[in-house]
């Protein structure tokens, strides 16, 4: 029987988080994690704020920033893919002693450990330059959820996602976004002309797309999860050539020969064995054991 899985995600909602420049660094108050989490609207991100005490490099190539003071202790991971900006919207780097606000996707699983360890999507570094950052959601009229702010998007406004992909203004509707701005027009609702907007989502990778496919399109046969061969392989960038009784799946110097009706398959010049037999479980659609996805992923760069 075909089955579809659904992921139940816990959603933590926070409201606008403002970052404003300060004249002297020593006057900045470090806000605790608890103080920075608020429930307003439908924003799916939490923010953690503090001053970086120490940065260490781990064996995985990731970095870990430690935040420690009298009131709290926590840390976060970051790497070359983490988006890091200052409060004016410029790309910057993290250093010890910098004050920051990190935005964490509350829908992602988090290890329950103390001190807390986060994996933020975006990190904003506080500077003395003029610039404010706010976490918001906007409707089709670009009015925020609290209905106290409207944004005027111009041709000069940079709009992109977490992958750095340029987007049109319609792409921000009902999405979690960070807006960067300086000038606010005194009105109600107040009017803002943002210089940059970051949509807090990114284009899924090929591997993420492949796993998303098998979450919805699979059969269970004799206790084994069977997944669509061509759809998954081509999503991962493999070439799939039909043989009439199965398929040859290839990419670079890697080749798999799959034959329906037998658990034996070819891996380059070697023979291996599946736990279950590949079969046509839908018209013109061969399904293979889930273990094949794991083999394909091993060879994706």
UniProtKB/TrEMBL annotation:
<feature type="signal peptide">
    <location>
        <begin position="1"/>
        <end position="25"/>
    </location>
</feature>
<dbReference type="InterPro" id="IPR036582">
    <property type="entry name" value="Mao_N_sf"/>
</dbReference>
<feature type="domain" description="Copper amine oxidase-like N-terminal">
    <location>
        <begin position="219"/>
        <end position="293"/>
    </location>
</feature>
<protein>
    <submittedName>
        <fullName>Copper amine oxidase N-terminal domain-containing protein</fullName>
    </submittedName>
</protein>
<keyword id="KW-0732">Signal</keyword>
<dbReference type="InterPro" id="IPR012854">
    <property type="entry name" value="Cu_amine_oxidase-like_N"/>
</dbReference>
<dbReference type="Pfam" id="PF07833">
    <property type="entry name" value="Cu_amine_oxidN1"/>
</dbReference>
């Amino acid at each position: 029987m075909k089955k579809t899985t659904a992921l139940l995600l816990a959603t933590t909602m926070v409201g606008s988080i403002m970052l404003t420049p300060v004249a002297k660094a020593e006057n900045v108050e470090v806000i605790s994690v608890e103080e920075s989490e608020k429930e307003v609207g439908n924003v799916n991100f939490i923010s953690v704020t503090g001053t970086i005490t120490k940065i260490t490099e781990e064996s995985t190539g990731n970095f870990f920033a430690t935040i420690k003071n009298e009131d709290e202790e926590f840390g976060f991971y970051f790497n070359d893919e983490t988006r890091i900006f200052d409060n004016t919207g410029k790309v910057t780097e993290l250093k010890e002693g910098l004050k920051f606000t990190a935005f964490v996707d509350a829908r992602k699983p988090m290890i329950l450990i103390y001190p807390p360890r986060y994996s933020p999507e975006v990190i904003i570094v506080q500077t003395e330059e003029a610039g404010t950052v706010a976490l918001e959601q906007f409707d089709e009229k670009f009015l925020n959820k609290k209905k106290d702010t409207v944004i005027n998007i111009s041709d000069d406004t940079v709009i992109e996602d977490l992958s750095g992909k340029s987007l049109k203004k319609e792409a921000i509707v009902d999405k979690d976004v960070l807006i960067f701005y300086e000038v606010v027009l005194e009105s109600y609702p107040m009017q803002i002309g943002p210089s940059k907007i970051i949509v807090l989502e990114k284009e899924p990778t090929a591997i993420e797309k492949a796993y998303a496919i098998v979450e919805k399109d699979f059969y269970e046969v004799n206790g084994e999860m069977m997944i669509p061969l061509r759809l998954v392989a081509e999503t991962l960038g493999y070439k799939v050539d039909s043989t009439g009784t199965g398929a040859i799946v290839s990419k670079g110097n890697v080749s798999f020969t799959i034959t329906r009706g037998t658990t034996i398959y070819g891996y380059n010049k070697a023979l291996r064995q599946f736990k279950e037999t590949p079969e046509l479980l839908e018209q013109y659609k061969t399904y293979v054991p889930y273990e094949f996805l794991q083999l394909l992923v091993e060879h994706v760069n």
